[in-house]
Predict the structure.
Amino acid sequence: MKAGKGFLKSGWMFLFAAGLLVAGLWLLSAKTFAPLPGDAIHAGLNEDMSCLPCHSPDGESPLGEKHPPKEQCLTCHKGETGNS
Ligand code: HEC
Ligand code: HEC
């Protein structure tokens, strides 16, 4: 089996394109935060105040200690359900 020069060239082009794609996806994902889980609890929630009963320090799912500023949850946590 002989892989000619043509294959080599397009092989590198493919790697290059794949690298660009990965870099692009990485950049995109670095800008997004943990999405709202797409479960029944979180479906249809679109007010910041509605998060607090469960995600306050003594709620059932408290925020981690390193959690950034604790207002306007939905600015960072965009729902998978279409609310933003
Ligand atoms: C009825 C209680 C309840 C309410 C209201 C609620 N959550 Fe949650 N949330 C949970 C529980 C329990 C979990 C962990 C289990 C799960 O993934 O569903 C969770 C998980 C999460 C996660 C994922 C955490 C991870 O480790 O990936 C995010 C982000 C989140 N909630 C944000 C929000 C935001 C923003 C709101 C308001 C729009 C909200 N939640 C409202 C109970 C609630
Ligand atoms: C400034 C952006 C920002 C805002 C505003 C914000 N979050 Fe987060 N949230 C993050 C980031 C970033 C993480 C991931 C933190 C980590 O991995 O340690 C996170 C993680 C979480 C988690 C996963 C558990 C944890 O602590 O790691 C939950 C639940 C959560 N956020 C809920 C909320 C709720 C509820 C609010 C509103 C009261 C809120 N967030 C507001 C950026 C934000």
Q: What stands out?
A: The first helix runs from residue 5 to 31.
